[in-house]
Amino acid sequence: MRIPAWTEDELLLAGALVVKNTWRDLRMSDQKVQELSELLRSLPIHTPEALGLPGFRSVGSVSLKTTDFMTNHRLYSGRATNCGKPTQLMIEAFTDREAEMLQAAQALEEGIASGELHRIPRQPDEIDDRGSTAIEGRLLVRRALARERDPKLRTRKIRQVRRSGRPLRCEVCDFDFARAYGELGEGYIEVHHVTPLYISGTRETKLDDLACLCANCHRMCHRSRPGESWRTPTALREQIRKSAKAAAH
């Protein structure tokens, strides 16, 4: 069995370490590298067989990965290492959205330290049909999906919408389940976090943090593309508008 490739979760943590070190790599003797090696081996991602492989996320491999980040940054003037596409995408994400990605890394570290991310079971949609996950990693998506599927939270959101006098329909495309399916669709809608949890924080989710979406728009909000993830309902509405405009020409 070969050592598994680095996941987005692991690359997120390694990238944060390099960014905090002003885009310089770190040596094996650095305590931060040793601590990250231990943290990576504690992530609830890999199989016990992988964890038992010699050299799996060793101090040396972590140090080499920090070198990948440094030498493949656009401002590095020396020779770049062969880092692979996932690492390159993570470098671009940190370069373009440094503060946001650092928040994601901090949320991941805190979730591991508290044990929360170990307790959440795997979710069906944390990896899409192409085998990809969000640039922020599988574990943060897992936590978000688990919260969105909380039936009590969904019930409270539906109650809030109805009390306000608004129709219960998708906030992106206006799809109304009751209108389309009659009695079968009455009272059905899915809920989605408008802001990623690593930005809004790990506090209790407020109802105003949630949007009501149809299944299609919900999936599109979560669907990952290289270097991009987690669209807001507003961004998805704009995407639909642009697509419709392009189709009309």
Automatic annotation (TrEMBL):
Q: Where is each HNH nuclease domain found? A: 157-219
Alphabetical keyword list:
Endonuclease, Hydrolase, Nuclease
Q: Which domain of life does this protein belong to?
A: Bacteria
Signal peptide (UniProt feature, chain positions): none
A molecular-function term among this protein's GO annotations? nucleic acid binding
InterPro entries for this protein? HNH, HNH_nuc
User: What SMART domains does the record tag this protein with?
Assistant: HNHc
Name the UniProt record assigns to this protein: HNH endonuclease
Source organism of this protein record: Streptomyces dysideae
